[in-house]
Amino acid sequence: MRIYNREYRFRLTIGAAAELSEICPNKDIGKIQEMLQKDYGTNVEFTAKMAAIMSKAHEMAARFESGEKPEEKNSEPLSKEMVLALEPKEYYELQKEVYEAFVQGTKTTVEVEPEKKTKGEKK
After folding, report:
1. Which DSSP symbol is given to 115?
2. 102 and 59 Cβ atoms separated by less than 8 Å
3. Which of 1, 2, 36, 74 lies at 20 to 30 Å from 92 by C-alpha?
4. pLDDT tens sequence across 7-28
5. Which residues of the chain have pLDDT under 70?
């Protein structure tokens, strides 16, 4: 998503999940939905923190994937303050993208190949 003339992406990593759990009720990441159903101010504050955490996670993971050391690349993740300064239309687009990235990150996909039978083996 393009914000303030820069492209930002969001990712749910193990570190991001741990950070997100810290801002959830009872430190339970499963209660994110509960946070999204609270009053407007709480929802906005939570979403801003969530976006900042997941932006930082994406930046860090992308650096490691590219083979660069994290301190070598001068890319700044989206901050909570940057989110809070958005116009409502941009904020709602951001909110949608962050939540979609969260849902994608929570999906577990395991590809399994069918077990091959050897000659004489009965199944």
Report:
1. P
2. no
3. 74
4. 999 999 999 999 999 999 999 9
5. 68-74, 108-123
pLDDT score for 117: 57
Contacts of 82 (CB under 8 A, 6+ apart): 3, 4, 52
Q: Which long-range contacts (CB under 8 A, 24 or more apart) does 79-86 make?
A: 79/52, 80/48, 80/49, 80/51, 80/52, 82/3, 82/4, 82/52, 83/47, 83/48, 83/51, 83/52, 84/44, 84/48, 86/3
Distance CA 50, CA 91 (A): 13
Question: pTM, whole model, 2 decimals?
Answer: 0.80
Q: How far apart are CA 32 and CA 99, in angstroms?
A: 10
- DSSP H helical segments within the chain, as ranges? 14-22, 32-36, 40-66, 80-84, 88-106
